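Q: What would this chain look like folded?
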Amino acid sequence: MKKIIVPIDFSEYSEYALETAAILAKKNHAEILALHMLELSEAILTKGSDSQMESLFFMKLAEKRFNEFLDKAYLDNIKVTPIVKHFKVFSEVNEVAKENQADLVVMGSQGSSGIKEYFVGSNTEKVVRYSDIPVLVIKHNPILTEFETIVFASDFSDDAVSAYLKAKDMCNTLQANMNLVYVNLPGESFKSTAEMEGKVVTFLKKAEGNLESLSKVTYVSDYTVEQGISNFANLIGADLVAVATHGRKGIAHFFEGSISEDVANHSTLPVMTFKI
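A: My prediction, written as C-alpha cells:
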C-alpha cells in the first residue's frame, strides 16, 4: 500500500478517517492524498472577472481551512499531499485514484447506529459506487485500527471471485487473518451442508486453484445475512467486515435474497468494500 485517499469535508467524521489513514500510512510507509471538493457552480467559474474573483476568494478560503485541518500531530512524518477539486463530483475520487495509482480510499461515516445515511443516496455511497479501489468506511474515533481479524462474507458465486481476491490481497497487506463466512438462510435460499460445501469447493478451485483456504470457511445459519455476519463477527472478535459492490449499480444484490448494504448500514465495525 503506497497511497491512501481521504476525502475531507472538515467534519469530525472525516477527521476519524484521516487519523485512521495516518495509522495505516505509518504502518505501510504510505502517502496520504487529502482530497477536498470545493462546491462551486459552473456559472461562477465561467462568468466574468467579478465571478472569477469570487471563485478565487472561495478557493483561497478553502485552501486555508484545508491547511489548518491538516495541521495534526498524528500526521507528523507522513507525506500528505492536499488536493482541491472545483466540483463536488464523486466520480472524481476514482479519477484521482487512477491518476495517482492509489490503493485505498478511507472515509468517515456518521453515527453509531450504522451508515445508512451514507450508503443510501449520500457521499460515501456515491464514492463506493464509482470507486475501482477498496473503500474503508470508519464510524468512530480510531482507538484501534490494527485490523488483525477480518470477516469476508460471500455467497461464493462466480461473480464474487474478483472481490475475494482483492480482499485477500488487502488482508495480506494489512497482515490480517481473513475469515470467510457463508450464511445459510431458511426458506427458498436454504442449502444442505453438502450443497454449501460443494459450492465453496468449486469457488476456491476457481479463485485459487486449490483448497488451502477451505479451513477458513465457516457456515452459519440465521434469519438474515446481516444477522449471520454480525453474530459471526462478534463471536470471533473481528475488527473489520469486508463486502463486495457492483460498481455503478451501487451496493447491489450480493447475497441471494438480501442486499449487502444492510450489512454495512448496521455494522458497528468498520466496513471495507471491494468492487466486483
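The chain has two domains: 1-141, 146-276.
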